[in-house]
Model the fold of this input.
Amino acid sequence: MGTKGKHNDDTLRELKGVKQPQTIQKIKLNRGKSPSANVFVTHILQGDISYLSRAITLVESTNELHQKKAAKIIQACLPYANNSIRIGITGVPGVGKSTFIEALGKYLTKKDKKIAVLAIDPSSSVNKGSILGDKTRMGDLVKDKNAFIRPSPSGDSLGGVAKKTRETIILCEAAGFDTIFIETVGVGQSETAVHSMVDFFLLLKLAGAGDELQGIKRGIIEMADAIVINKADGTNIKQAALAKADFSRALHLYPLKKSSWQPKVTTCSAIDNKGIDAVWQLIEEYMALTKKSGYFEGQRNEQNTFWVLETINEQLKNRFYHHPLIKKELAAVLKKVQQQQLTPFEAAKKVLAAYYKKGAV
Ligand code: GDP
Done:
């Protein structure tokens, strides 16, 4: 072996070289290790935002270990949750959702409320960019120590995003947030999901543009507990007042809600901070009415039942349609249905029979 080889040996020996004192190794290990679920829970219950954020990251993770830990944390936080009002806010892009939430949010933190803003934006997973997660939004509220803003979790299914949002609500409530805003873009199916996780559903609109132009579906108007016409400022004031009258008339034609709350219409200018207090007053009125009648609690129970059944449905369906036997059987019967050899009902019966027979459930 020449000098070159010897030189290499020396280098290797040096790398192996100095043994680290045990204490340093321990510190390094601890830094890499995530705190236990109990440590998370203790900090979250103390209102520690950094632990809350990290727990939400666990909720959003697809890693199995993270999910297990998240489930443990949520379970332990559950008894401390529920003590809030959950408000859904929807409206097309540009209507002023973030400006409105910022104005209402600041109004509330001044009243010593603790607000959390979460977003559901299923379009972000398709467009590979979150409209709602934009960091420049709600710049002032972000700095407020009584506000917590979390952009939309990404996910490939609305069901998945909804589950994460529901779990995040629990964590936020356990951390002491008493007013939870769930924001969504009012054009997709996400509103139905949001509607089944909030106590109050608010639709933001603009005056002058028809519903079709604003992309608002009739179903969304039916869900609304309040319609707030934003940008009622400058030359828009008159038009906003007209729109308010029109909507109030139109809403009276809808059947009375189960909550016996008559949906209200109001105008505001989020940018000028006008009419924001009236919106909050309206929400308080709703709370007082539905808490007194028992509807508030009843609806939360109903929503819990809905999510239990929804989760079971989704998992059963997934398991069923991904089963290799079902895939094969389904393809075979569909062919026969197309060739008029089997009715759709007989076909379904056959597939289900094959599933039960194999004990595939
Ligand atoms: P989002 O997409 O629904 O969240 O809407 P933004 O809050 O980002 O607002 C869209 C645009 O409308 C921005 O340029 C805002 O400054 C503007 N805007 C929001 N609220 C008002 C308002 O009350 N009056 C006026 N004139 N403009 C507003």
About this structure: Strands lie at 85-91, 115-120, 147-150, 179-185, 200-206, 226-230, 264-267. Residues 268 and 275 are 4 Å apart (CA to CA). Residues 1-17, 23-30, 125-133 have pLDDT under 50 and may be disordered.
